[in-house]
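Fill in residues.
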């Protein structure tokens, strides 16, 4: 089993909390989040799941994948599942997956809308590039 933690450090609880977020989302958003989660975790064995940024307006927190720093995080929007890459502006994106937050200095995001085609291989490669960027420091 992968090392998974929530911000309180409870091992394996982050995975269970993300399972609950997926279940609560329901429908296409749940299916999309579950699918990209599998791809992200498959990209590198060093990736761990965490729950970050709990606040009154978002008590469940934000599913975050980490490997020597934040790799990406997921937000469930009304009409999209958004994957945000904090160092996205530094990543090569030959498949042109990034389609949101394109004018920021560092961050890039992918908004996956209902019925969006997801290129698992391209997403896995983008996650690998984000991990490599984190490892470079």
């Amino acid at each position: 089993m992968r090392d998974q933690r929530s911000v309180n450090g409870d091992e394996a609880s982050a995975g269970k909390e993300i399972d609950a977020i997926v279940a609560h989302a329901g429908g296409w958003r749940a299916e999309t989040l579950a699918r990209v989660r599998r791809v992200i975790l498959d990209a590198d064995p060093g990736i761990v799941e965490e729950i970050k940024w709990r606040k009154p307006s978002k008590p469940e927190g934000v599913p975050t994948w980490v490997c020597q720093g934040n790799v990406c995080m997921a937000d469930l929007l009304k009409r999209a599942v958004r994957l945000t890459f904090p160092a996205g502006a530094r990543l090569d994106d030959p498949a042109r997956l990034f389609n949101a937050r394109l004018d920021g200095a560092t961050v890039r995001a992918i908004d996956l809308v209902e019925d969006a085609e997801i290129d698992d291989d391209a997403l896995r490669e983008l996650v690998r590039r984000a991990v490599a960027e984190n490892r470079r420091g």
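The first helix runs from residue 13 to 25.
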